[in-house]
Design goal:
Blueprint (H helix, E strand, L loop, with lengths): L3 H14 E6 L5 E8 L3 H10 L2 E4 L6 E6 L3 H8 L5 H17 L16 E3 L2 E2 L5 E2 L2 E3 L1 H69 L5
Antiparallel strand pairs: 1-2, 2-4, 3-4, 5-8, 6-7
Length: 210
């Protein structure tokens, strides 16, 4: 039986020194931790709630923690005595830990905390009716918006790429056209000079070609 004064002392102590969170991403569970240089307050927490005390090797700080199913009742017991910020933090931890302990068919909210929407009229390839499914409309809409924005960004990049290299190709074609015209003009000019020289030499010799 936990005494009332011990309960209020633990609530005040953990309000300033404790940490309420989720441990182990693969198998999430609720956890309360508290770090102190002095071991005496942690011994008192150990006496009140149980748990485990270890000492860090690198800095010598004592760590008390309470995990899994033992931590959830303590959080529920201490939550009304905490500040609004701590109450919100503990509520999120409890929700996530409870959801993590359920099977997929028992869950009513998605991993992001949105309620699932039931939808029916699902059929397999043979036309047989399937059981009613569920999905999160908020997360689905968010994924669709993200996919649409990524598609638009990809198209814009391709368009910019095509415009850029299209301009380069047009410039190359213009340059080639200018070079061809210049070569043609130079060839005609050279031919005119050759014809003029030939005519001049013929006149000089007194033999003008008709």
């Amino acid at each position: 039986m936990i005494k009332t004064k011990d309960l209020y002392w633990a609530a005040g102590f953990l309000e300033g020194e404790g940490c309420f969170g989720i441990a182990n991403r693969k198998y999430p569970h609720a956890r309360i931790t508290c770090n102190q240089k002095q071991k005496e307050p942690l011994d008192r927490l150990l006496k009140i709630f149980g748990g485990t005390i270890i000492r860090a090797k690198n800095n010598g700080i004592w760590v008390w923690y309470l995990s899994s199913k033992k931590a959830r009742p303590v959080m529920i017991l201490l939550r009304p005595m905490m500040s609004p910020r701590r109450q919100l933090q503990i509520g999120g931890v409890l929700r996530r830990s409870i959801i993590a302990g359920l099977t997929n068919s028992e869950k009513t909210v998605c991993p992001n905390g949105h309620n699932y929407d039931r939808f029916s009229k699902r059929f397999d390839m043979n036309g047989n009716r399937l059981p009613d499914g569920r999905r999160c409309s908020v997360c689905t809409s968010e994924r669709q918006r993200k996919r649409y924005s990524e598609d638009l960004e990809f198209r814009q990049k391709n368009l910019n790429y095509s415009i850029h290299y299209g301009k380069i190709e047009v410039n190359i074609q213009k340059r080639n056209t200018r070079n061809r015209n210049r070569y043609r003009t130079d060839t005609e000019y050279r031919q005119k000079i050759l014809d003029a020289n030939k005519e001049y030499r013929s006149k000089k010799r007194g033999m003008v070609d008709v």
